Amino acid sequence: MKLEKCITEANMNQNLLNIQYAVRGPIVDRAAQIEREIEKGVPKPFARVVRANIGDCHALGQKPITFIRQVLAGAACPELLGSSDIPEDVKERVRRILEDCTRGSVGAYSPSNGLQLVRQHVAGYLAARDGVPASPTALHLGSGASDLIKSVLTLFVADVRGKPPAVMIPIPQYPLFSGTLSELGLRQANYYLDEENHWALQLEELQRSWEQASVDAHVRALVVINPGNPTGQVLTRKNIEEIIKFAYDHDLFILADEVYQENIISKPFYSFKKVMYDMGAPYSSMELASFVTCSKGWAAECGLRSAFVELLNLQPRVLAAFQAARAVMQCPTVLGQCVLDCVAKPPVLGEQSYEQFARERRGVARVLAERAASAHRTFNTIPGYSCNTIDGSMFAFPRIEIPARAQAAAREKGMAPDEFYCLRLLEETGVCVVPGSGFGQRPGTFHFRTTILHPREEFQHMMDSIRGFHLQFLKTYS
Questions:
Q1: Looking at domain 14-61+359-477, which CATH architecture does it have?
Q2: CA pair distance 213, 208, nearest whole angstrom
Q3: Which terminus of the chain is less hemmed in, N or C, by CB atoms within 10 Å?
């Protein structure tokens, strides 16, 4: 009898075995198991699991923006446009979108790079944001930023000058990058953010990372996450200029993950594109990929998977190859493109939907500011905790001191100390966060990432639970 499987761990794509994605890792699996146990009546020291592992705003209670949902409803079911309950500006938006769809249906394929109308509106959004011209032909729509980031990173899968390719990524980082590099077989060149200086990106550290990686690899690209995930910092214009000069001097392609720009609380946002153009030649002709998504910001439509990348200054043959690869995937979801159209061109003063839209958008911004301030204040009052100010994104990334005895207990179980800590937190309080080791951190430091957009009562419950757990944890292991 034939027992051997056609594909085994030994003969499968070995790159896939190296992928790690802690945001949906073993602690999250355990959280799901605990939820099932609670449903079956298994006694727990808490009533419910509080999921704080992923930035899924609607799952955390943020209400959808009415204008977006009305446009989606009308686009999916045009018969609704006859209703007096639908505002006239929504009806007009839907008509324009459907005119750009094949046979007026969002169920038909769009061009592989996205609907022309949506790309025109995105170009207008970028031009207004940066004061720099933007072209629809430089824009490629995708099913979320993750989809587009992987497509761009795929361009670098080639040995150069007899060395394997490497990509520089920040530590801490969003594990999409490390996971995708593993999948594609690209080397990961880490550069550490400076936690003691508000997670600053230091040129000396970039240089160290580049030199170390260049010993046995050819460094091809530099990833920058601004605002930071999981760290929440926002780069200054001066810092961006320094990074651009570094990339120019080292012949690096820049991938700018700018998906949290609409989550900035108080600081100004400068896109890499704007700064490059303002710096003039030769920097304005550098290659750049800039990513924006509708999963974050005030739209927060994670499940509808919508994003764009603006590709600048690529060689024509390289761009053509990228477009061909994207065409193989047909197109991103057209309903997701409808969301992007609403984000790029939201209601304006004088339109029927504006007042409600503006009120809902202010509400999202207010909650983010309140939760960021509360998380920062609370974490810094817990013994052994420290947390930098959260200027953007929707996460806190506090640093925690883990006693030596707890570290030894973690080693006995074959776990990283912060993984052990987060698992104990889950088992004793029901609060599910992600260990800092899943994002990367300096050796000897320990963190976790938590989302901060829960409803007020649940957020306070989470903060109180973390405080109580930590104080007891110190008593147990100190």
A1: Alpha-Beta Complex (3.90)
A2: 9
A3: N
